[in-house]
Structures are given as structure tokens and as C-alpha cells.
């Protein structure tokens, strides 16, 4: 990439922030629980863990905890690999794809899914994934082995999945480098106001209120949180450096797409994500300091 083609500062992060929700809608969709209930999987944590880890195949809890990073081992081990005695990973992969189809149709409508803009967004997002790399990126690499769906809205969802997991794998590298354990990563992110609220952490990650409180105490000892649980200047600087490091580790797909492509994908994905959010894709209390 020449200097004249360099991406504007944080353009890749901005693009990711509007593409990622197009993948994430499946986690909060009633459709996913209907699909997995038909497979015989009804426990909500089991649905979440099975749907995201299915691309690994029949692995045990260890690789899943390592890749997910901020889930409690005991929660994962309660369901993985036992869930694969109920339904196969292949069944779970197919169920998640059906969920993506049903959810996007409900949130965006058939006309949007069949639009030239949807097809263009899918082409751009898939082109960006050509710049992703596999080394050290288990979740990205596992999902990259799956077939690209033919329908444009599902191809876009699949590409969003790859871009999400590629960035997420890099973010785990940055968290380890920063010395933040899984609980400290969660509560420090929550303190920014951009992470999950404690209600959702308790419901999805397996940690107790006492364990989350202990994580806050450890961050206070490091000078990263104050007595009220707010980030100190050092804490703010650390979280900013984490995002900057993640940007550096995640630059390749967006550099591959190029400045014009990133700008256009950001424009298209913003419209889709805004419409999905307005249609109730995400819980109102999902994010924040609560």
C-alpha cells in the first residue's frame, strides 16, 4: 500500500465496529434458541458455547476456554464436550447459519437482503477477509475452514464472523501482553462504558459477583481503578493501548481492502447495523457501566 492509499486513522476500527454487529445479532436472537432447541440443546449457556465453538469440532473445554479467554473454565466444562453427545458440531454450524438467515430477514427485511447494496457489502467484506492471517488465531482459523454461503446476506454474515474472530484473536494477544487476566479484562472493559453490564457478565461468562469484585480489587492494587470502580488515568491509558495494539494486529484485512473499500463497507454496514439495532437486535441493557 502506498502512502497515498493509507487508511485514515482508526478507519479499520470504525469499520469493524459497524460490521461486527451484523455477526453478533445471532447471540441475542430468539431464533438461535429455537434452532438449538430443535437439536435438543435448550440450556442458554450451552447454546452460546456450542454455537460459537462448533467450528473447532469435538474438542474439550480446554481449547474453547483458551480461545474465548474470558469465560470461566467451569462453565465451559459443564457443557463442552458433553453438548456434542446431543448434537454434532456440524448440526450446530448449520443451526447457526439458519439463525443468521432468519434473524437478518426479520431485522432487515427481504428487500434489503436482496438489494445490490447487500451484495456489494458481501463482496467487500469477503475481499477484506483475504488479508486475514491464520497464525496464532484459533477462532478465525477454525471458521475460515467453513464454506462461504452463497446468498449475499449470509456471505456478509460469514465474512463478518471471520473479521470478528480475527480481531478477537488479536485482542486476546494484546490482553495477555498487558497482563490482564480474564476477569480483569472484563471488568476493566466494563469500566469504559463500552463493555457488557454486570448483569450480562453474570449471565454469560460464568463468573460470580465475588469473583468480579475480586478482579476490581486487583485492578485497584495496580492503580488502574479508583475506589468507585472508575478507570484511573493509568487505566484509561492501558485500555487505549489495548485497542491500539489490537488495531495493529488487525490491520491486514483492512489494508488489503484499501481505503476506498473500507470507507464503502463502513457506509453500507452502518446502514444495515443501524436498521438492525432499531429493529431490536440487541438488549437495551447490554452495554454500559451498570
Automatic annotation (TrEMBL):
Alphabetical list of InterPro entries matching this protein: HTH_67 (IPR054058)
Pfam families attached to this UniProt entry: HTH_67
Full protein name: SalK
